[in-house]
Each structure stands twice: as structure tokens, then as C-alpha cells.
Amino acid sequence: MAHQKNQTLNLEILIVGFENLNDYRIPLFLLLLIIYTLTCIENLLIIFLVCISSRLHCPMYILIGNLLLCEFLYTTDLVPLILHHMLSGRPTISHLGCSIQLNVSGSVTMVETLLLTLMSYDRYLAICKPLRYSALIHNRLCFYLVATSWFISLIFLVVVFYFVINLEFCGPVTIDHFYCDFTPYLSFACSDITPVVLFTLSVSIAVTILPFLLIVLSYVFIIFTIVRIQTSEGRKKAFSTCSSHLLVVTIYYTAIFCLYGMPRSGGAEE
């Protein structure tokens, strides 16, 4: 058992990634590096502006700042390793590194989902309860809700990391992806994965399906309220306050469905 555990700790995972694009490795590296750098600068700049500008110290901008922080953490968790693999030509990662990567990305995704739900609630209050908006949601309450979202995510990270780091793998692992994807990685485990699967499945339903239903419910009330507005100018102004959030939610849940809801063809290789 100890020998098997040592084998698992020393395990190297092969990430297939851009294996078929080796001839274009350097141009792809430079393109991805530029995009990553610009994304990080943009996110950090907006977060900085939200922090220093007193006029932006309101619930919606606090949520936007945290959402951009999630974006920064998510891309930083994945992209630097992808860049390293492209430059070195040796796309491998350790069992510990893979466990950290997939847990950080999963936890940040959880926070993003909760923040988008809080943003839909904020838009619901702004449009449907404008006179009571300041009483129903304020900076202190928003801070508590955001802190709770990060705390829940941290608990999830610790629990799943404990499960994953204690899994045993019986042979070489090759993941046909650009990073350590959760489901293909678990498929190579030769120890019991039932506890971690049940835990992640139940948490995923709780923090993905339930928030989605709450967002839909919020927008049902928002649409009914907008329809009842007498003037077209008023309807246009009301819709413009939530259109950007609605677009982000649509893109976000479409991406989640495409990544995890649709059947896959060979995420892992023997």
C-alpha cells in the first residue's frame, strides 16, 4: 500500500494539449501570452479602479470587482502552465499540481456562479423594488454575501483536494485536454472514487442548478416589471441596466453546458 501511494505521489500526468500543432507552437505561444497579459492587466485595472473610486463603492461594482478577480484567478490557474507546456515541449504535470489546478478552477467557477446569482438579485431589486433598493441590499450586506461565497468555495476546495490527493493511480495518465480536467483524471484512479464523485455531484447541483433557477426566476419578475412600464423610453432604460448581466449569464451557462452537459468523446486516453 505504501509503495502504491509513493507511485501515486510521483505520478506524472501527460497533458495532450496542442500536440497536433507543434509546427505552430511559437506563434500560438505568443498569441496566448499577449491575450493572457492583456486580460490580466484589464481585470486588475478595473479591480483597482473599483477599490479606489468611492463612487464605485456600491453593491453592483463590488460584485463586478469580485467577478473580475475570479476571472484573473481562473486564467492564472490554467494559462501559465499551458504556456510552459507549449514552450518546453514537455506537457506533463505532477499529481499534486494537477490536484491543485483542478480544485482551484472548480472553486473559482463556484464563486463565479454565486456572484452571478447575487448580481441577478441586485438587478431584480433595482428594477422591481427601486424605492427599497438601498434598504434591501447595501455595501455591508453585499460584503457579507461575497465573503460567504468565497468561504463556501474554500471549504469545497479543501474537501475535494483531500479526496483527490489521496486517490491512487495504477498506471500512466494521459489527458486529452489543455489542462487537468476533473472527469478524465478520475477515470484513471484505481481506488474508490465514489465519495469524491458523490460530493462533487451534490455540490455542483447545489451551486449550479439552484442558482440558475434563481437567476431565471429573477428575470421572470424583471421582464414582467419591464413590460408593465408605460413608456418605451422607460422600458429601454430598465432593460439596459440588466442586459450586460443577462448576456454574461447566457454565455457562462452555455459554456458550462457545452463543457459538462454534453457527452464527451474521449477526454482521457489509455
From TrEMBL:
Gene3D superfamilies: Rhodopsin 7-helix transmembrane proteins. Belongs to the G-protein coupled receptor 1 family. It comes from the Eukaryota. The keyword Zinc-finger does not apply. It is found in: Cell membrane. This is Olfactory receptor. SUPFAM superfamilies: Family A G protein-coupled receptor-like. It is a multi-pass membrane protein. The lineage of its organism: Eukaryota, Metazoa, Chordata, Craniata, Vertebrata. The chain crosses the membrane at residues 28-53, 60-82, 102-121, 141-165, 196-226, 238-262. Residues 42-270 form the G-protein coupled receptors family 1 profile domain. Pfam families: 7tm_4. Keywords: Cell membrane, Disulfide bond, G-protein coupled receptor, Glycoprotein, Membrane, Olfaction, Receptor, Sensory transduction, Transducer, Transmembrane, Transmembrane helix. It comes from Staurois parvus.
